[in-house]
Amino acid sequence: MGRVFGGWMLGGVSVLLAGGAGAADGVFELGTVEVVGSPVPSLDPAESVLKAEVLRRFSRDTLGDAVALTPGINLSRNSRNEDIVYLRGFDVRQVPLFIDGIPAYVPYDGYVDFGRFGTSDLAEVRVAKGAASLLYGPNTLGGAINLVSRKPRTALEGDLRAGVGSGGLQTYALNVGSNQGVWYFQLGASYADRKWYPLSSDFSARSVPTSATNGARKVLENGGHRENSYSSDSRLSFKLGLTPNVTDEYAIGYVRQDGSKGNPPYAGNAPGQYLNIGGGANSRFWRWPYWNLESAYFIGNIALGRDHMLKVRAYQDNYDNKILAYTDGSYTSLIANKTNFPSWYSDSTTGASVELASFAFSGHELALAAHYKEDKHADNGLSGTKNYRDVTTSLAAEDTIQLFELWRLRLGLSHDKRDAREVYYWPTGATSGTNWLVEVARSLDGGNEAYASAARKTRFPTIKDRYSARLGSALPNPDLKPEEALNFETGLKGRPWAGARGHAALFYSRIDNLMQAMNILPVSLCNQPGLSAATSCSQLQNIAKARHAGIELSIEQDLGRGWQVGGNYTYLDRENRSSDKPLTDTPRNRVFAYASWKPSDRWEYLGSVEAENGRMVAYGSGNAASYVKLSGHALANLKVVYKPLPAVALEGGASNILDANYALADGYPMPGRMWFANARYRF
């Protein structure tokens, strides 16, 4: 035991939270990137898997809150009231989101609001890190996050949930599925609506100048109910599958997500951030009347003889959203800048991938994959539609080799290319990148496993990176190259001693060709038709370098008599090697810990704590950005679950029960104490 424990401490740690008691949801295996029916164990040892039972246990109802359970991930909030996640310092453009293996990020800027995605219809969330499989396709610079949906296992199964909470919160969710042997279906529907969220009682009201010249002041945020913090989201998902034999499976799916939300106004003390001139800096009086996603897909797994499997994906995604910008916090008068507002985007993605897996060579799982993805963006301003179209392709090969009884090797190589086929006003361009990975894993006594990996990954610049004029203050750069990262990781996972489960990792990344805004002269280079003359001009260029390094430590321990404790710790050190500007939005130290007591099958008491030591954040943008260090915070959460019947669960509790006043972005305070109550029936 001493040797194993010592190896854990040297290896560093990242945790995989185990599910609580109760039946597990069936996993839609076609939604993973692994080959279904593979005779070679090809699981990524660095991958973290959050089961649906874990998400329910910790009341993680949105995707942002859910992935924050994973070591190495921290949640952030931007000025558009969006939940943004960082994985080991990489943002969501560099760690893309997938749904059943299909990319689900907005084509224009590569972002996606993790607060808009519910978790009620998921079987698991998979978080792959630095050496994430190349079979995912392009842009996995720092990893990938894959949402895997449910697949029914019995003739009739499902669950029904309803809940209420602070701020007028109402939540409802239904999941029902049936597996009839040769065919199955899965249906999910959910609705969540919140009128506002409460601020901490320690929050101080913010009053700011109403203009740059007079002494009048206006209260932007007076505490209590957070101004303009409403949100409403509904989601419908349906999947129909056919399993004609033990090897083949075909599924068609449809997802419809509709949302609307407000953008709480800036409520900080940074100078020059208050006014809403031309849409404002941070004091954005914005509302989204709709933020919608629609997706249809086909996934098939076909056996080609005894030694080959073919997996095919084809999909069509549509992203639509609209922003209304107002002159002040009364939200009654739209701003006069009609060149940019109202703003509505209509983005779409059409794509397909083909993966051929071969087991013809003993001890090998060789996979060859081809990806095609066409992204379209239409900016429908009142001055006319601005159309953009990108085509991204990728060829990848990955081989998992059982070297000896205890040793496993994974090798991968891919080449990706992105072409701008249609661009409004500016010239088109093209770029490409090559990726590779090497990973070795060894099985140890007691079910433990040690591993080490190295990977070179790239991330293409988005349409916004290359072509956004940023309201007339930026010069587009069609020739931007991909960002590059060299990721190293070593670790150990398994059971270090009796009753314990854990996962350990020590990681290091060197990032080159990072995009950074640089001032451009003369300023007139930014002048564009239909816009006022530029007063400043910047351009994104591949000039920055950075280094990310850290340790992830976590453990989960059964103590007996119904007690269980666990948690994880992440240490992340980031360095900007190109300038003295700090790298933002990630804390250096972050902790999550919990304790659970189940005195009987009917009762469970669960308490958890999340804490960080603060983070550097920016206000302003580009070269004009300034920086401030936010205070650290600790959040305590409590929950009680009562099961009057095995199929019925009643729960109540509170998040941030100590009412901490904290923020994840300058001027955007997070919720104070919030209570909730839920009822769930499982059949």
UniProtKB/TrEMBL annotation:
BP term (GO), one: siderophore transmembrane transport
GO cellular component, as recorded: cell outer membrane
Keywords associated with the record: Cell outer membrane, Membrane, Receptor, Signal, TonB box, Transmembrane, Transmembrane beta strand, Transport
Residue span, TonB-dependent receptor-like beta-barrel domain: 266-657
Record domain TonB-dependent receptor plug: where: 47-144
Membrane topology designation: Multi-pass membrane protein
Subcellular location per the Swiss-Prot or TrEMBL entry: Cell outer membrane
Domain of life assignment: Bacteria
Coiled coil: none
Family, as annotated: Belongs to the TonB-dependent receptor family.
Name under which the protein is recorded: TonB-dependent receptor
Upper classification of the organism: Bacteria, Pseudomonadati, Pseudomonadota, Betaproteobacteria, Rhodocyclales
